[in-house]
Amino acid sequence: MSLGQQLAPHLPFLRRYARALTGSQVEGDRYVRAALEAIVAAPEEFPRDLEPRLGLYRTFQAIWQTVHLEEDPRSGASAGTHEEIARRRLAQIAPLSRQALLLTAMEGFSVDDTAFLIAKSPDRVSELVNEAIAEIERQTRTRVLVIEDEPLIAMDLESIVRDMGHDVTGVAVTRDEAVALAMEDRPGLVLADIQLADDSSGIDAVKDILAEFSVPVIFITAFPERLLTGERPEPTFLITKPFQRATVKTTIAQALFFDQATVPAGA
């Protein structure tokens, strides 16, 4: 099996990580593209002694760290953009903490593998994860709309959201109900399944909502390949079912971290 064939199944998830790290589909894909170009340019340097996924992320991390050491963190971003909002918040939290959090909670790497990827000790990785969670939760509080037709999953999501200190504006099980709830009480975040109770689409519900106002969205689905096609605009934040509570918490924190207009809980 060629190196390209070994890496292909892992690319959608690397793109997910890159987007969560940067808060932008365009920027995230730019870093992924740079990593792939580096592999194509020097395939003999790819670490063949590692699992392909670990080697792929290791190559990405090398690109990311090199670029961010060279860039002025204040350059290229105008006040009020998502990038500038993110940069201001990033000034209060170490980039390594966020990387450690995403790699463990969202991407599912072990503490040891994460330590390898970011070149820190396992104990330090654990410290970084705890620091990131505490700081991100401190910075972001909002109201959340849940679009999910499976009662147990909806209850689990509600519990996670409230545990993080956010409020739940409602739970919708159809497209029409989701849009109605969103118009009645505008949320600061939307958690959306794709397939809903009446065979309507969570994607369509989100499109209807976004046509009225801007809000960060996290899609939660058992079929991520339906969204990560590369053929149309794709979600910045995507969680695969079955999910871990830590993954949901991390993704919510990241989505709100990059949002310009987080709605205060209870406002």
UniProtKB/TrEMBL annotation:
The modification 4-aspartylphosphate is found at residue 193. Pfam families: PhyR_sigma-like, PhyR_sigma2, Response_reg. Residues 143-256 form the Response regulatory domain. The keyword Phosphoprotein applies. Gene3D superfamilies: 1.20.140.160, 3.40.50.2300. InterPro entries: Bact_response_regulator, CheY-like_superfamily, PhyR_sigma2, PhyR_sigma4, Sig_resp-reg_PhyR, Sig_transdc_resp-reg_receiver. The keyword Zinc does not apply. SUPFAM superfamilies: CheY-like (SSF52172). Keywords: Phosphoprotein. PROSITE patterns: RESPONSE_REGULATORY. PANTHER family: RESPONSE REGULATORY DOMAIN-CONTAINING PROTEIN (PTHR44591:SF3), STRESS RESPONSE REGULATOR PROTEIN 1 (PTHR44591). This is Response regulator. It comes from Sphingomonas canadensis. The lineage of its organism: Bacteria, Pseudomonadati, Pseudomonadota, Alphaproteobacteria, Sphingomonadales.
